[in-house]
What does this fold into?
Amino acid sequence: MSIATKLASEKLPKEWIDLTIGEPYVITEALEAALEERYKKLLDCSDIPMLGYVPPEGTEELLDVLRKRYTGKMIVGAGATQLLGAAMYALKKIGRERICMPTPWWILTPEIIDASGLQWCTIENSDNYKPDCFLLTSPNNPDGKTLSQKELKNIHNWAAKDKIPLVHDASYFSPVYVDYPHTMVCGDVQIYSLSKMYGLSGLRIGFARVHNDEMYEHMRAYMEINSMGVSRLSQHVVTKLLKLFDEDEEAERRFVEFARERLASNRRMFTQEVNQDVIDCSKAKDQKGMFLWARVGIKYDPNKTKCKIIDGTMFGKPGYLRINLALPEDELKRAIANLNASIN
It folds into this structure.
């Protein structure tokens, strides 16, 4: 059983608030607000052309829409998690052995790498392991660290010059989280989460832009072996959404602005109202993204907070906590009240 499955399977008492799961509630609300009555029509799949098997790389309908926005060969997957597994599989198939990644890392990344047969190390100890490929996550989960456009270009050029395969986990590389074009090329493979991008997590859908022909063939084979493609229904809904935004750029702008403001508002509320002796937010106020990455407060007691929070140890960095800020505002207020009451 994976770490994520164990966390999700834990049942909490009624008064407890779950701050662990990466459910983008605020992004979903933003999409519904931007589309208004068109939101329900988006989820109506009665107009789907057929329900037969789909190609392992995705429906041609969705691929055509993605190609208008992004360069590279496309593969549609059941979320960024499956696509990251496909990328690790491809790296192993082309003869790579050791991948390097930054700290803190996403909670499932080590398990996904281990499953591929690759070894892994962090940037801090890379000199001892001599890695032959690299995993970059920007914006990063859990700490929200986002590299600038110039920094990404420099890393891309370095990897290309030294012929080091580079995978960019771009799960949060979208207009809601970055201020520069999220269509820029960085690395051999870039993995996007359409679920996180548009608040459609229940559809379990993402896509990879692959700029390496050899890795593309192996990733496509991985998809065929593991799933025979993503649900046609999920792909149909996303196709309709992207076409709608192509035709109505103002709706997409409203969506991005709503989501950004709600996330920023939730961050301000949490960092200003939570007792700093419980959650030390002194260095988290200027972070971006849907998570708060904060130090453990001097009076933090996980048994008294009535809030389920992931400890930083699971991300490779003890002494920190990751909190989902994309919750509905009233639920986040209840969480703050529970945390503050834990030391009263």
User: Anything to note?
Assistant: Residues 47-247 form a domain with the Aspartate Aminotransferase; domain 2 fold (CATH 3.40.640.10). The chain is about 40% helix and 15% strand. The longest strand covers residues 291-296.
